[in-house]
Specification:
The protein is α+β, with helices and mostly antiparallel strands. The chain is 32% helix and 26% strand.
Length: 402
C-alpha cells in the first residue's frame, strides 16, 4: 500500500478488544473514514476479551527492546487514560511476584532487571519479612512488588470502545459471522449471516477463528489456532481476606504459561487460577463443550502432536489438575498456605486462542500476516487486552507508515 495515503475504507472482522481498539484509533487518525467492525456474536467482547482475569499488565515479563515490551508499557498507560476518559472502573492495586524458595530467587532477579529496563517505576525487592508486611499470608523467600500493575473491567472497556466508535461515525455490526471473502478491483466483499460489507482494506482480528478467516482470504494456514481453556475458582469472602493484591508465582521458563495466581476483581472478590487445558471447542468454556470440527482441526495438525511430544508431563498435569480440585488447591497453597478447600468456589473459564507453529512451539509474540490490502492478526497473547490500543496504533503504522 502506498505510504502517502490511507485506505479509503476499512472492515474489521472481530469485535473483541483489539478489533474495537483498531476502529477507535483509525477513526481518530482519519476522521470521516468509513470503518465497520463485524462481530459474529450478538455483543462485543463476547469471548477472549470478556473471559479473562481483567489484569492491567505493565510489561514486567517481556524481553527489553522487544515489540511486546514496548507495546505493554505504552499499552497500560493508554488503557488507563482510556478508562479515565470513558469512566470505566480500574485500579492500579499492585502485584507481588513471589519466589517460593531459593531456587526461584535468581529468576525473580531477572524479572526485576527486565522490568527496570522496560521503564517500570516503583519496583521494590522485598525480603520474606517485608513481603509479609504487604501480604501477610504469602509464603516465600522474596517477592517483587510491581505497583503499576492493576485491574479493570474489559467487557466494560469493550462497550465503551463500541460507543466511541459510534460517536466517531463508525459502525459496529453484531450478528455478522463472515463466511465468505473475495477481492476484486481493489475492493473486499465480506459476506455472511445474510449480510454483506465492502471495504478497501481488511483487518482480520477474529481471535479464536483468525486462522479460518485467513483461509477464507485465500491464504495458507501454516500456523494454526489451538484453543486452551483456563479455569478459575472464586474465593469465598473468608478466603478473599487472605489476598490483598495480585499474587503471581515466579514463572518457570521451561513452560509457556505463567502458572496459577490470585487476582482481585474490580467488582470485588478474588479469582484464583487459571490452569491451561486443551479445549474441545474453540468456544469451549466447559468440559462438555465439544466440536467435532474443532477437534479434527487439532488432531489433524502435526504441530499439535509435536507440542505434546515437547510438553508431555505439563500437558498431563494440567489435565489432571483440571479434574481434581484438591490438586488445584495444592498449587494455590504453594503461594498462600492458609487457603483451604472450603474457600474455593467454581468460577469462570476463558479460552485462549493460542497460535501453534508447525514445529510444535507456542507462538509467544504478536504475529500477523500482511498483504497490500489486508492484515491478519494471528497471535495477540497477553498483554493483548491491556496493550490493545497500543497494538492498534502499531498495526495502523504498519499498513500506513508515517
Amino acid at each position: 500500500m502506498p505510504a502517502h495515503r490511507p485506505p479509503a475504507s476499512i472492515a474489521i472482522i472481530g469485535g473483541g478488544i483489539i478489533g474495537l481498539a483498531l476502529a477507535c484509533r483509525a477513526l481518530e487518525r482519519w476522521p470521516g473514514m468509513r470503518v465497520e467492525v463485524l462481530e459474529k456474536e450478538g455483543r462485543v467482547g463476547a469471548h477472549q476479551s470478556g473471559h479473562n482475569s481483567n489484569v492491567l499488565h505493565c510489561g514486567l515479563y517481556y524481553k527489553p527492546g522487544s515489540l511486546k515490551a514496548k507495546l505493554a508499557v505504552e499499552g497500560i498507560r493508554q488503557m488507563v487514560e482510556f478508562c479515565q476518559q470513558e469512566s470505566v472502573p480500574y485500579q492500579q492495586c499492585g502485584k507481588l511476584v513471589v519466589a517460593v524458595d531459593d531456587s526461584e530467587a535468581p529468576r525473580l532477579r531477572e524479572l526485576e532487571a527486565r522490568g527496570k529496563a522496560n521503564g517500570l517505576t516503583g519496583l521494590r525487592w522485598l525480603s520474606g519479612e517485608a513481603m509479609r508486611e504487604v501480604e501477610p499470608h504469602v509464603r516465600g523467600v522474596a517477592a517483587l512488588h510491581v505497583p503499576e500493575e492493576g485491574i479493570t473491567d474489559y467487557p466494560a472497556v469493550c462497550r465503551a470502545m463500541q460507543a466511541r466508535i459510534q460517536r466517531l461515525g463508525g459502525a459496529v455490526r453484531t450478528g455478522f459471522a463472515v463466511t465468505g471473502l473475495r477481492t476484486q478491483d481493489g475492493q473486499w466483499t465480506l459476506a455472511g449471516s445474510n449480510q454483506e460489507c465492502r471495504a478497501g482494506f481488511l483487518f482480520n482480528c477474529a481471535g479464536l477463528h483468525c486462522d479460518r478467516v485467513l483461509a477464507l482470504a485465500g491464504e495458507a494456514r501454516h500456523t494454526r489456532i489451538v484453543p486452551f481453556r483456563g479455569e478459575y475458582f472464586e474465593l469465598s469472602p473468608e478466603g478473599a481476606q487472605l489476598v490483598k493484591h495480585l499474587i503471581y508465582p515466579t514463572p518457570d521458563p521451561r513452560f509457556p504459561f505463567l502458572g496459577v495466581h490470585f487476582t482481585r476483581m474490580i467488582q470485588g472478590g478474588v479469582e484464583a487460577g487459571p490452569n491451561a487445558v486443551l479445549a474441545a471447542r474453540r468456544e469451549g468454556y466447559r468440559h462438555r463443550d465439544i466440536s467435532p470440527r474443532d477437534l479434527a482441526d487439532i488432531f489433524t495438525y502435526g504441530g499439535f502432536w509435536r507440542f505434546l511430544a515437547r510438553y508431555p508431563r505439563m500437558s498431563a498435569f494440567e489435565l489432571y489438575r483440571s479434574l481434581r480440585p484438591a490438586v488445584f488447591l495444592r498449587s494455590l497453597q504453594r503461594l498462600v498456605p492458609a487457603l483451604e478447600r472450603q474457600h474455593l468456589r467454581p468460577g469462570n473459564a476463558g479460552v485462549r486462542a493460542q497460535a501453534l507453529s508447525p514445529d510444535g512451539t507456542l507462538v509467544q509474540d504478536f504475529q500477523y500476516v500482511q498483504r497490500a490490502d489486508a492484515l491478519h492478526l494471528m497471535n495477540a497473547p497477553s498483554p493483548g487486552a491491556t496493550a490493545s490500543l497500543a497494538i492498534a496504533g502499531h498495526l495502523l503504522d504498519v499498513v500506513q507508515p508515517h
